[in-house]
């Protein structure tokens, strides 16, 4: 009998190592693959685009916010991997009737490493998990050396339009912004206590007037027209299209993100 506790504090008991996995989060699907669990993954969401071949070899069970419960049940999973931010409590409760649902909760870099270590324990991939933890820590240390003499830039990180929405505080995106010495003007803003607030872009100047306006490649497809419109509501901000996966995907993707951040900083000079 194996007993584990997920990041919401829920205790799960397994007689043997789970062998049939359904993953409801794209970045966690990528991590499971990188831990060597490809053969164990039986179901993924339509947004699980890495690795690319999974969309033709794994069963698609819906999206992150709307899953097909019967398709999941028919896959006979031993465990379902979910996330507090991506999947609603109602979805988790319903899926719990099928099998244990392991819920992650990732805000800080430490949370991310804990998730990797947890998966190593849970799926008997401790060596593989430790290798990824070591790689990420090394890349982080190297990046911190790279960034230490860079100036601080005030930023607004947009994730959606119509209405315009940004990454606020208490988000993994905000943690990575801090790591890049990007001061998020919507972090701890008194009017924007929610994690992904809808904002009035006409007020950007008085609410922080960013040096950089970052337009994420996901989940919304921003265009040059959006960049022009947003730029008009700042004094002198540079508008930059950024890879949303590098700022919002946790798991093993963080290792690649550090190299991307170096390139980004060269771009914004």
What do these coordinates show?
This protein has a five-stranded parallel β-sheet, sandwiched between helices. Strands 8, 9, 10, 11 and 12 form a five-stranded mixed β-sheet that branches. The chain has helices at residues 26-34, 54-57, 69-74, 89-95, 109-122, 126-147, 172-179, 224-231, 244-248, 253-268, and strands spanning 2-5, 11-14, 21-23, 41-44, 59-60, 79-83, 101-104, 153-160, 165-166, 182-184, 212-216, 238-242. It is an alpha/beta fold and 269 residues long. The protein is built from ten helices and twelve strands. The chain starts with a strand and ends with a helix. The model has no long low-confidence stretch (mean pLDDT 96). Helix 5 (109-122) packs antiparallel against helix 6 (126-147) and helix 6 (126-147) runs parallel beside helix 10 (253-268). The chain has two domains: 2-139, Nitrogenase molybdenum iron protein domain (Rossmann fold, 3-Layer(aba) Sandwich), CATH 3.40.50; 150-268, 3-Layer(aba) Sandwich (Rossmann fold). The longest helix has 22 residues, at 126-147.
SSE pattern? EEEHEHEHEHEHHEEHEEHEHH
Number of domains: 2
Alpha carbon gap, first and last residue: 55 Å
Q: Output the structural class.
A: alpha/beta
Main sheet specs:
5 strands, parallel
Radius of gyration: 19 Å
Rough shape?
globular
What is the helix tally? 10
Taking strands numbered 1, 2, ... along the chain, how are they ordered across the largest sheet?
5-4-3-6-7
- Topology, number of strands: 12
Indicate the percent of residues in helices.
25-40%
- Report the CATH topology name of the largest domain: Rossmann fold
Which residues sit in consecutive blocks of at least 5 with pLDDT less than 50?
none
Class of the largest domain in CATH?
Alpha Beta
């Amino acid at each position: 009998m194996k007993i584990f506790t997920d990041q919401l504090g829920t205790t799960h008991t397994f007689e043997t190592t789970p062998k049939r996995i359904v993953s409801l989060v794209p970045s966690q699907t990528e991590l499971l693959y990188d831990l060597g669990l490809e053969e164990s993954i039986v179901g993924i969401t339509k947004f699980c685009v890495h690795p690319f071949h999974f969309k033709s070899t794994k069963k698609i069970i819906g999206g992150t916010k709307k899953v097909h419960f019967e398709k999941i049940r028919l896959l006979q999973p031993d465990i379902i991997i979910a996330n507090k931010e991506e999947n609603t409590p109602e979805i988790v409760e319903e899926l719990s009737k099928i099998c244990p649902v392991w819920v992650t909760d990732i805000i800080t870099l430490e949370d991310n490493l804990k998730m990797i270590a947890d998966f190593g324990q849970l799926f008997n991939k401790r060596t593989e998990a430790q290798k990824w933890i070591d790689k990420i820590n090394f890349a982080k240390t190297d990046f911190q050396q790279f960034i230490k003499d860079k100036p601080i830039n005030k930023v607004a990180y947009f994730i959606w339009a119509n209405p315009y929405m940004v990454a606020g505080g208490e988000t993994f995106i905000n943690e990575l912004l801090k790591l890049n010495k990007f001061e998020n003007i919507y972090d701890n803003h008194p009017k924007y206590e929610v994690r992904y607030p809808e904002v009035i872009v006409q007020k950007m100047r008085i609410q922080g007037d960013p040096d950089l306006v970052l337009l994420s490649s996901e989940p919304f497809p921003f265009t040059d027209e959006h960049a022009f419109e947003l730029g008009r509501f700042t004094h002198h901000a540079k508008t930059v299209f950024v890879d949303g996966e590098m700022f919002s995907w946790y798991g093993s993707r963080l290792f690649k993100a550090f190299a991307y951040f170096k390139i980004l900083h060269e771009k914004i000079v």
